[in-house]
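$ fold --in a.seq
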Amino acid sequence: MLQQPAMELRQVMRQSVTTVDVHAPLSWAAREMRLHGVGVLPVRKWGHVVGVLTEHDVVAHGLAGADASDTSVGQVMSTSLAWCADDAPLWEAARAMSHSGAKQLLVVDLAGAPVGVLTADDLARLPPDELRPPLDADQLDTLDTGELPSTD
């Protein structure tokens, strides 16, 4: 029984990444989100990603009654980043999202530059088997014989 190679993250992620500078006005970033139809913007400072701005951040700021034109992206962004390498299998990305509690995952290349974004909605459209780690050869042998895999 041969197992199909796992799909890679780059096959599913949204490949167009719009970034925003940490000093940009929040109102401008919100317009960029709407214009590009995205719910997350990687935030950069001096060319490096230092956080993310999500729709939730923008809405929460607005509900607090603050003026988005007087607020910089850096004042409301999240500095806790959930990320994964673009050549990672989907199950690793799903695990990273699950462990971080993030709804969006920043996808980076070998140099650490953002190359895509994966969302929980993207994962929800996939067959469940793509989100499970692959079985090793011993586990496949026991499945063929009808025995349960060992948890040792």
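$ fold --in b.seq
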Amino acid sequence: MEHIIKDDLKKSKAGTRYHVSLSSENLRRQFTKRIEANIWKFSDQEDREAEARELALRRLAEVIGSTKKMRKLEIDYTMWMMVRDMASWFPTNTCYKGSGMFSFMRKEMKRLRSLEALKLIFTDSKRLTNLKELSKGVRELTSLKCLDLDLYKCEDLTDEGLKDLGAAMRRLISLKSIWLKFTWCSKLTDQGLAEIGKALKGLKYLEEFSFTTTFRKEGVTDFGLENLSEGLNGLVSLQTLILSFEHCEIADRGLKNLSKDLKKLCSLKVLRLDFGNCKRIGDEALESLSEALQNLDSLEKIDLNFRFSNDITDEGLKSLTEGLKGNSSLKSIRIDIYSCKNTSSKGHNNMREELAHVEKVDIIFK
């Protein structure tokens, strides 16, 4: 049956990068062929998918045990939307009978001491409430330089999960790149962001940091952004910063506190801030951001999203423009102020004219 997963486990020509796709869509295509050949004898589709995932993880464990050269590993655990419940196959508590995903992470990662890059993608894991088992595995990767964790619609994930993740991150002092994405993980709050902020403080070699969260509730507020941004202090090597808080309850206070911490990032080259649909951000926030931008002498590219921020006026745009003009290192500017209803075409045009000297400028408005 090993040949069934030959498309799921891929090895690069250099022999150092492995990718295992456990996505249901990929497996479903293979199931169709096997069912027609009467190789699979399961009573329903869910059993077939569970068995295939189990088989793929066993094969991956064999590869890990047989190689000493693995440097990069990517695991895609994406759900096919018709599947009812992934967690019923691979429980997320501490009791395991098979090679479930989190059991795999805990048991196998300690054999990957040389791993430098790890990417994990999870989608629609409705019983995922914490990251304890995952973190136990990740903390063993003492050579890790890049950690990329993408969780989508893990609706029962709580702040305790981010606490576990933060504890693991604090041990990975060699990290240079962290990409964390928690999209529609609706039970996360300000406290969870505080745990990530605490973890950042000791990562003095960090060059890239990206954090994304999306809400339609009051789970993340100004206090969460403030707690996270405090962790940026001391990251003198940071060159890329991406923060996305679309639909969150962020207002002037949160962005003003973030701006204070931005001033200290002397090596920053790329900055992206996404506060789309944060409707209470206004002119005061843009004025503080303007002051911070004039202190970032290495900044080359900036991408700002304030769409649907109704408290922003032409005065705020004027302040922001002054900050952008005062930064002579900028080569690319993108600003999304779509549907900021209290701005005018005059304010938009003035911004465009004042920034005409920059190599690339894209201002989105209506």
